[in-house]
Amino acid sequence: MAIRFLLFAALALLLTACSREQEGDGEMPDMNPQVVGVETDCDRSCLMGIAHLYIAALGKNDPTSAPLADDVAFVENVTRLDPGEGLWDSTLEGPQDFVVMVPDEELQQVGMIVAMTRINDGQSQPVIVGMRIKLNESGLITEAEHLVSGIRPEMLGRLQTPRAGLLSDIPETSRMPHEDLASLGMSYYDALDENDGSLMPFAADCQRHENGMITAGPGEPGPGPFSDPDSDQAPVARDCAGQLDSLTFTYIDMIDNRRLVAVDPVTGLVMGFSHFRHPMDNLPYDVIHIDGSTSQRTAENMPFAPFDLPAAHIFKVGSDGLIHEIEAMGFTTDLYSPTGWE
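Now predict its structure.
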């Protein structure tokens, strides 16, 4: 076990060093002795290195080349699977340039949203994947989780490289404590569930992407319940806070299985997983437009069958303590589906 971890840790550091050189900072990670001890936590560089090992192993369809514990628990799209199944079997090309990674030294977890390619029904399909890996004290992965959704062709352009704000570091003197960042990130679910934009500190330039679609903030709105079907009225607010206040999201009945995945004070990123429930039994309801007028959302203009949406969100908390970017993904499944972790 000790030899196995030492080898994986060394490879993790090498991959992290290569990644940093590609990003242009030219800095090698410190070869901290802590990463080669068997009973010790993995630091930030070590966590990122192991995460790179994991996604590289996915790209090779080879779970044996990832540092998986013998008793690893693996869930993909709310279904318990074995390593070698799911994306381990279907991946055609692993993540390339679109990787947003959130390493958490305190939780010994890494969260990611990545774009990659799989084989689906015999055809190549680009997918967006929310991932979570959890390490034990020996640096081996004891839990791995994937949320996988296909990418619509018109959304691929926004899933080539992450937005710069998501990858930028927070100045060291402005970094917030882990606990404070976690609280800010998780406040999104209350704000959304209660249709109250004041419950999360959104920046004026906040922009939310979901599966590559701009669903709030500056930019062209995508189709679906986020677009405005009332062309003869003033628009519904598009800013991150105002959109929640408009009651647009009343169709979301509840948000279950809220989990803090990872917090990275260096980048100000917070990642969460959740499970949106949509029984679609609360129609019709009123939506408030920016001029105070209202319109109704009905079964006619929201003709959706009941569904669940397991989702991953990454929130960028800037040095001003406000949310500037949200990168999210999710996939639809049967209403009241289990989480896979029961």
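The two ends are 29 Å apart (CA to CA).
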